[in-house]
Amino acid sequence: MKNSYSNISNFNKKILEKAIKKLKNKDIVGLPTETVYGLGGNAYSKNSIKKIFRLKGRPQTNPLIIHYYDLRYVFNDVIINNYFKVLYKKFCPGPITFVLKKNKNSKIDSKAVANLNTVAIRFPKHKVIRSILKKIKFPLAMPSANKSSKVSPVNSNDVFEEFKQKIKLIINGGKCKIGIESTVIDLTDHPKVLRPGIISQNQIEKALKIKLRKSFKNKKLISPGMMKKHYSPGIPVLTNQKRHDGKSAFIYLGNKHKSKRKFFSLSKNSNLTEAAANLYKIFRLVKKRGFMKIQIAKIPKFGIGEAINDRINRASRFK
Ligand code: TXA
Ligand code: MG
pTM score, two decimals? Predict the structure, then answer.
């Protein structure tokens, strides 16, 4: 595929070397993962971290996820426990992020973790990011590659739309298979999900053989990603909609509506995994088509539906 923009490059050996060189030089690179595209930078470099926060317009209080190839460099940065060992073995590399206590000797820049004494770590699966992580001697701090509070990008052109030429290299690794951000689980105490994702609470409970704590009842803002307004397409989003108002973009599951002009199906056969993968793509498309409002039909809340509802509800808080 020919890339439409000059700073987007297809993945090959030369681009791999170029990306590594940039990361070593404390530059920021747009990179694909299996969940969403990220803005990668050296987690040990103050300068790189500063650039990430500045590019995203991200509040200093919102910590970044630190990405690793495998366990090699992890021990110096965090204190692991048995919950982590079980979940790592079962799900990694993959779309899950673990919050653990920070090791005192950790070289992670303190601003990257918003001066907290915990670190969120992840082992992404996408082959592009893995081939980069394998070849560098530092982990990558990598938030989703969108402006703060906006919709995460699921292909390289989305990243370009967000940052234009402000980042010098975006690697095209195709469309993200999963399409929503990783599950974030806090393992510093009795495990609890902070951000639902494709790996569901149920799967985690099965692996750990325990019931997780309900995090949503916790009043304290433990994960700043739980900020109410987030993943916003920039136009009003109404949830649990029954009837089309005649002018808004109507997003739903199934194939009931034949007209494709105003009706957008997340999945023709109501498959929730497919629906998650299409959600952000459809948000962007609708915005581009000039709709002023989005109506979303009720989406089941079980399994992956929990993560979809989480994103939709946050998107709906845009005023
Ligand atoms: O799938 C993903 O996780 C993507 C890809 C690029 O890896 N990354 C991503 O990063 O979604 P970001 O920065 O958009 O979201 C990170 C989430 C935020 O909700 C943040 O508050 C939470 O992780 N987080 C990071 N460090 C944390 C910590 N120490 N304690 C609690 N929550 C933390
Ligand atoms: Mg994000």
Answer: 0.95
